[in-house]
Amino acid sequence: MNIKKAIDRIPGGLMLVPLILGALTKTFFPDAGKYFGSFTNGLITGTVPILAVWFFCMGATIDLRATGTVLRKSGNLVVVKTLVAWAATWMAAQWLPMDGVQAGLFAGFSALAICAAMDMTNGGLYAAVMQQYGTKEEAGAFVLMSVESGPLVSMLILGAAGVASFEPRLFAGAVLPFLVGFALGNLDKDLKEFFGKCVHVLIPFFGFALGNGINLNVIAQTGLGGILLGVMVIIVTGIPLMFADKLIGGGNGTAGLAASSTAGAAVANPMIIAEMVPAFKPAAAAATSLVAAACLTTAILVPVLTGLWAKRMAARGEAKVQPATA
Fold it and tell me: What residue ranges carry the coiled-coil annotation (predicted)?
């Protein structure tokens, strides 16, 4: 049976398939973890410890000695997307209730959901798309996008938007595993290789655990809204990213469009942040569902749109523009 190959054909499948299986378990067997207990309960409810190990291993894969071009391209996309996410979060905080919209097409929409959906790019998707439609330097720009992984950037955005306040120790706790992994990976290449092998391996495990926090009845209520949120992410972040790629990054806009996705890891942020700030707990479940749907929507649409844009640039003689060296 070619189970792995079948999963790989699905955009973001390594994350989304286990997440859906976890959601099915939560919906139809909500007490499965308590019933089996022990290690089974740990797999079902262990989102935070599994993610902590994943952040550590992710940090170990980032090479400090990246080229100036890659850092310039990465920094450009990361900074612009973070600023756009902050602006969108600030606007949402002015108009949407803290616990989210309760009914209608925008049911579940909250500052928490919008922040989580917009502030993290799917780095793997970006790298794969740019290897096909961009330059090697552009494909390598995913290196700094990994810094967005985890709740730290979302916490900074929510704090800067005036939605929530976090004690310094919480910021330190959110980033410390990542920094320790980063330090060890750069001090010893063998450790970098050793821990780096775990990054992809852990994805289905935390995907399944995340899914166990989602009731499919909530997905049914917010599914269309999640698709809408995904489209909003592409439009709201994609347009500024394309301009930034052209004006600052020296590209033709393709890299900016390829970065206009929602990362699979973003699905974890609403629940993690809600644990730190209990005021977000009423909005966390719906936000998780919305972000999961937005992740799937952008994973499908972004490669298609990027391919169409790259072909248009090729027809105009602007394909695979080499960015200026730093």
Answer: none
